[in-house]
Amino acid sequence: MLTETDRRQLDDVGCLLLPGVMPPEVLAALRRRTDELFEEEGALAGSEFKQEPGARRLANLVNKGRIFEEIILTPRVLECMAHILGPRFKLSSLNARSTEPHSESDQPLHADSGAISDEAGYFVANSVWLLDDFTAENGATRFVAGSHRWRRLPEPEFHHPHPEQQLAIAKAGDVIVMNAHMWHGGTANRTGAPRRALHVYYTRWDQPQQQHQKRWLSTEVQARLSPEARRILALDDPLNDAVSATGSGKSGFMK
Ligand SMILES: O=C(O)CCC(=O)C(=O)O
Questions:
Q1: What is the mean pLDDT of the chain?
Q2: Minimal CB count within 10 Å: which of 139, 203, 210, 244?
């Protein structure tokens, strides 16, 4: 399904817009469940991973609704992940991030998990699922095209604009796939409404999961998962247990 132009864009720019991945009923279900969880979890929302000034977060979402179990297997997104990460990869985490109305500053530019590609290639890739339109005013993700190829990280606390940054302007229901070594970050929301998104984050087979899924998923959820979901979550992979079990799930920079 990926065209040669799409592949080249992922290689050269580092991100690709997939329009209309979420049909209206899926978008509505994801919005509903995300809002319910923000309501239920209140001040604790996101605490399994991290909390962030100016944004509300949720973590460990595969454990928190069947709709999330389904979206981690979206073929168009998995095809992009395989292009970036190679044929063997797994889910690293599924979190939500809602930029708060009238938030004051841009999130620092970063690569996810503070990762620089290694001798085997790229090992982190993210997909940003837009639950609201991303506009120039409401906190669209910024990115620096090609920076995944520079093999270095931006300075810490890079809140200011980068001279080469662009904004990922897109519609609710779209997905933006990113080589997560590419420098990127959220921007300030200058509107009166939240800007909600999910981060469905994958990593190469030999790397730790950001949230060790086997430890974070309830027995009930694990028991009902399809073989395909078990595989993408690396639930039956002893190597994943060895590399992921020691982490707290909170380490690394922003995701
Ligand atoms: O939500 C966004 O616009 C991007 C956020 C991001 O890059 C992060 O939290 O690591």
A1: 95
A2: 244
